[in-house]
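lol ok so funny story. i was supposed to be doing the assay writeup but got distracted and ended up predicting the structure for this chain instead. priorities right. anyway since i did it might as well share w the group, maybe its usefull for someone
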Amino acid sequence: MCELLALSSSHPEHLTFSLHTLAARGGQGMSTRDGWGVAFYQDVDVALFREPFAAGDSDLVRYLESHGPSTQLAISHIRHATRGAITLANTQPFARELGGRMHVFAHNGNLPGIDDSASLTAGSYRPVGQTDSELAFCALLARLNGLWTGDAPPSLDARTSLLATFTADLRPLGPANFLYADGDALFAHGNRRIQGAAGRIAPPGLWLLQRHCKLGDPAPDCDGGVAIGTGERTVVLIASVPLSDDAWRPLSEGELVVVRNGEVLTQRLTA
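and the output, tada:
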């Protein structure tokens, strides 16, 4: 299956070890060799990097590990193709403008039947590629379009409620782990994924790690996979699998987590 990774931090940080570890899952001998991408938020815009081939073979991935932009919010995806050709158009994460800012979406799982779903229509949003993941993103944007009508972001409660309804419509179609960001907050939905060599599909679909770095602490990777600067700060990482030996927390099936600036604001079971 695909691999997901998100970063939310109180201060701009650099993705380093986590990006390398996630990229290793797209290397030789791995099933995720069909493309990779990462979106680094810079205020309401994103620096988006994508390639339709193995991340483990990418010079660009290695460059971004040491020279990538610092960011408080990032979403990364490594693809295992199940629908659609191995092309740039089908490479995640996907990014679209809505309400004068960039919205980013990345999905892990299969959603057979989404093309015929009466509750998940794309409206005026049309996919560029052929994946069910991008179609799900278009369906989400069609719903969000009614919220993003003013100059300021809609209330967090309104966005969270909309995402909760969206996840409830998405889950019956298949595994629906996803990361979504609107430049203000990060939304992560944990569902089910393939577990182990036996191929059993079960929760958890995502894992979460939050680190609080205190003033005066040394500044290694903070054991979480980002190059942490000095000073007091908080960092949240969300990934398909734990990327270190730290105490990652599995998301419950149907759990929706909302994060802003390295702080978990909402944890909501939508099942």
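The two ends are 22 Å apart (CA to CA). The longest helix spans residues 156-170.
back to the writeup now i swear
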